[in-house]
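Translate sequence into structure tokens.
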Amino acid sequence: ISVYFLFCSRYCTSITNFLVMGGFQLLAKPAIDFLNKNQELLQDLSEVDDENTQLMEILNTLFFLPIRRLHSYAKVLLKLATCFEVASPEYQKLQDSSSCYESLALHLGRKRKEAEYTLSFWKTFPGKMTDSLRKPERRLLCESSNRALSLQHAGRFSVNWFILFNDALVHAQTKWLRAISQAVDQALRGLSDLPPYGSGSSIQRQEPPISRSAKYTFYKDPRLKDATYDGRWLSGKPHGRGVLKWPDGKMYSGMFRNGLEDGYGEYRIPNKALNKEDHYVGHWKEGKMCGQGVYSYASGEVFEGCFQDNMRHGHGLLRSGKLTSSSPSMFIGQWVMDKKAGYGVFDDITRGEKYMGLWQDDVCQGNGVVVTQFGLYYEGNFHLNKMMGNGVLLSEDDTIYEGEFSDDWTLSGKGTLTMPNGDYIEGYFSGEWGSGIKITGTYFKPSLYESDKDRPKALKLGNLAVPADEKWKAVFDECWHQLGCENPGQGEVWKAWDNIAVALTTNRRQHRDSPEILSRSQTQTLESLEFIPQHVGAFSVEKYDDIKKYLIKACDTPLHPLGRLVETLVAVYRMTYVGVGANRRLLQEAVKEIKSYLKRIFQLVRFLFPELPEEGSTIPLSAPLPTERKSFCTGKSDSRSESPEPGYVVTGSGLLLPVLLPRLYPPLFMLYALDNDREEDVYWECVLRLNKQADLALLGFLGVQRKFWPVTLSVLGESKKVLPTTKDACFASAVECLQQISTTFTPSDKLKVIQQTFEEISQSVLASLQEDFLWSMDDLFPVFLYVVLRARIRNLGSEVHLIEDLMDPYLQHGEQGIMFTTLKACYYQIQREKLN
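Result follows.
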């Protein structure tokens, strides 16, 4: 019943508002031609007997008919009640329901009379004032023309008119204070005067609540003049969730605090010139865009990043145009007061160029690197968006120019031009690269008999590029600020953990409103991250593993500050080294950048976990390790004399590479493949050529001792003899194991694959010899070379160089280091093998 009552009340409110604004009179005019043809049907539906009744009145009666029938419903319920005993609960329930229907009918009838009274008032009211005061929800309570009222100390000939509405007063007087008080009280409460279902007749007067929902139009505040706010209020100010609309079409929807936009919100600004709108979604503080947000401009540009005081400030990505437009481009990097400043990457898709360097006041200024889709590489100084000063230019065919520049790709001044064959020219150069260069200088052709002192030094790239530790400082600064630190490492640890908990909770609440729903596992991960890891006592391997597990979960969650940091670093890395940025000259820069990430993230981790030892420290073992284990060399038990296993020495790479490298692996490995393309082609040609031989022929060619040649093989549980025609069967388990190196990401995982391969080789030889033996490198190397050839790893050179660049230094002289050196030697040996 209560739902039906609410529906009737809302229906009555809508119809009475329509009546007050003269809606039936306006409706009757356009409908008169159609409705007059069906006059009888209309009269029957509206239950009007008089044929002379005007169409406007018939429509009025027809729309109010559902409310008039409430009386009939009350009578029906009363008759139903007579079917039960007076003392029965059914009788009482029906009686109460009948009373409620009757009171609702009377209440809505009064509402209709108030609306009709207000309408008749507006018909006699002056036109200009009607336009300013007439509103659908406004009702006339009383006015001085029918209730005598005089103004004290008024002039003899003055005429005063006093009007009291349910939400406004025109020229009020003291005698009316009670009526004014009642009207204001009702307006402030924002409550309907509909008697609640089941309540008594007496209603206590409520004080206006401090916090409430209401709608209001500002007229004095210069910032919000004529804007309408609809939402939550606190102490007379917008506070909480609400919507703010301006007459010119601007709209803000989101959180407010003390009358200002504060928190997460959405802002739309119409652009009449482009017939589109600017659109911002993100964080606000004290009425201004501040924090993370996405701003979509009417021009088509989109900025995603940090804001401060309504300006782009901090790290951000700006997309300009689309691939089909005349000038598509992307910039990702640091912003200061709405301008590019600091380190950033600019991808000019139209020109096919990518700039990676320093900016100042929206222009390239300082050291930087440019690569093009045609393979050109430049590193050097920039001034006002132009290559100016000292620089190095390399072409795809390895021609090198080192010297002075005066404009983009324009040589001007002293320099050295080195040819791919080693010949070089020293002198003065002028002209644009690729369009003819004027040279005044000396040509040198180094001979085989010249000493190394006389030859020019080999070029080392990166000296004129931005140092890796200077890149993406704004990204790391933002993470430190989220932890409550003004500068890296300077802050309270407990405060940082509090900020992490607050960030997780806040982001979870905001995520509830988004269309993406968190899975149960994601929710459980977030809940576990809200607990601060507690470590009491001496640091141990178990505590190290706990930190590792926490970091894996944190970095997998963008809602966590560390997770957001990793997500941003992955985005900037891919933006830098994908597309035009996939240039083989950038490999060492890409490797240095990863090492810099590891160093700076490790600093953050050590701040959050002060008990974590510094880089290179050894973690004491809580329990002694077994003193004996199987050696891959002998197959026998021997004492443990090798270096510690990975994980017992604290390193940034050991702790963080498993989290970071899988995300960065595709662009990084592509650079390795491009850089090693030529030598890998030679290696692969040899692999294909040597693999044409049968197993025994290849073993003999490689010089493997006959005692290590498998005599029989187990195939599906059956023992089969190795024949001269047998192919791809010997040492199959070791071959299959080594092939897994291409499915792993981190150097430590790749080294484990290599180690497992050696152990598989030893097990195979041990099974055929059926006695203990001791490997020597002269015996082992040809067998391992056979396994490497049969594994047919296409980019083995890239795998070797990646391991070499990123493996932990302490592993180089241990068992895994020796195994890796053997694999590397096999790679170079294969390139030199000649088939008789």
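Note: Residues 172-178, 199-203, 627-631, 633-647 have pLDDT under 50 and may be disordered.
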